What does this fold into?
Amino acid sequence: MIDTNKIVLTGIKPTGIPHFGNYIGALKSIIDLSKTNKTFMFIADLHALNSIHNPEVIREHTYQAAALMIAMGADLNNTVLFRQSDIAEIYQLNTLLMNLTPKGLMNRAHSYKAMVDKNNASDLDPDAGINMGLYTYPILMAADILLYNSDIVPVGADQKQHVEFARDIAGYFNHTYKPLFKLPEPLIRQDAGLVPGLDGRKMSKSYDNTISLLAPEAELKKKIMRIITDSKTPDEAKNPDESTIFLLYKHFATEPEITEFAEMFRRGGMGYGTAKQILFDKVNSVLAEPRKKYENLMANTAEIDNILANGANYARQIASKKIEEIKHAMLG
Ligand code: TRP
It folds into this structure.
């Protein structure tokens, strides 16, 4: 259990509607935490800028991400939902932290290294296509985390290193100047890596095996029916933990439902067609309401603007105080 006094923060990169894997890996845990803890949740549009150079696309994706978090149940009583770029202090802190961050730390970032490896493998210049936004991505992310005094940062496993960098950078600052920054902790969902896609491999856009979180009912059904299974007959007993159907079901059902479904696998007598239908019914019943809410919000973006503006006003109050302290410590 997380101490309810801890401040939770996470950024959501606006890159389109997430799939089940994204949702289960990171978004679900933050929505759950927003019910018990003060939570800063922002749409990381500045982080999207290193790859998306079309303002309409960023705007549309920002709306989608905000609408999604609200529709999936983020508790707006505890949640400060805002757009990263609306807070001027974030650009300031980013500039300040640049001067404390060793270049070598950025060289070690997995996301940057992966790009370099890809370039090398294609016989390109190692830095081809890499802009400074991408290279310094972890510094901006550290600024996000440190500006709002965050304690806990729920993220998918791929972002763990970035939160560790934020800790490192906070440490350099505290050591060099004065202890103004808390050391944030990443919160990685245990089962984050275990969301299988339609073909049984990890759910990922690059494998083309995803299910969109807000897919219309017909598409959802089609996708679920396409899940690849082994060739066991309906009568045969099955191991639930080896079945994509069960592994997806687990994330949407209650404990007793999960136990019962597992039992049905083990007992034998349930064919995969039936199991898929049960999975579909469950997922569809959980997602029907959010889907409607999402569509309503997207049809009324003024309401989203309003929520984001309120969030920004609140976030700005914290940020402006913090940045004054930091500037004073660094610049006198
Ligand atoms: N980098 C994160 C991602 O790609 C998004 C993000 C930006 C973030 N700033 C953050 C996450 C601060 C946690 C905390 O998913």
